[in-house]
Amino acid sequence: MKIICDYREHSIYNCLIKKIETRKNYENIVVEKTSLNIGDFVIGRYIIERKTLSDLASSILDGRYKEQSSRLDSYIQEHIEEQPVVMYFIEGSLDLFADSHNINKDKLISACISLMCSKNYKVFLTRHVNETCDFLLKICFKLGKDVVDSEAQNGGESQITICNNIAKHQFKKSNQIIKDNIGIIMMTSIPNVSANIAVQLLEPFENDIYLFLKEIRENENYLDNIKLVTKDGKERKLSKNTREKVMELCG
């Protein structure tokens, strides 16, 4: 049985390899790296998306949460004959996260419930990388016999087919990327700039990134005076590293 792992999932890949090497019951599981356009892992017909709580929060704030689920829905509809199943692994502690980020715990829980009830995806909550790997290996182990039996009937092509389709699948521009969030998405590609920081930086300019860029280029001290609002309502200055990185790439 094989776990197809996206090449960007370095920590998970390394952890899986170590666990397989030290556990005899997993010795027949193979982990393979490749480039996946959707999902982070493929096990048989199961497409698995992994998100830390920080990833989930950022994707809710900048609109990628809806975009990604729309892409998965599109893939399922276009390849319904393969009967793909989507799983989400949400990694981290909700209680610890709620104390240090500017999005509340209820909204994260609501997003998870929406994935299960509205999208009919399977959602697993894991605490850390090690536990995520335990779930992946256990799923692979449990599904192994069913998948092997199924592939024996159709020439062993189901996992190869679904992986190849995911790797080459081309997506249309999502309707979830709109004028109001494109600037936020662009800003979050800057190191040290989270979705929450991007939202607050662009808010005075009605989310128009071009007006923001014009301001910081004409007034190079603009970011020095910016104050961000934290979850508990307090204000803090934009960190020096963040200011320097924004000016380096945008100024």
TrEMBL record:
InterPro entries: ERCC4_domain, Mus81, Restrct_endonuc-II-like
Keywords: Hydrolase
Gene Ontology biological process terms in this record: DNA catabolic process; double-strand break repair via break-induced replication; mitotic intra-S DNA damage checkpoint signaling; resolution of meiotic recombination intermediates
The ERCC4 domain, residue ranges: 2-81
An example molecular function term from Gene Ontology annotations: 3'-flap endonuclease activity
SUPFAM superfamilies recorded: Restriction endonuclease-like
GO-annotated cellular components: Holliday junction resolvase complex; nucleus
Protein name, entry field: ERCC4 domain-containing protein
Species whose genome carries this gene: viral metagenome
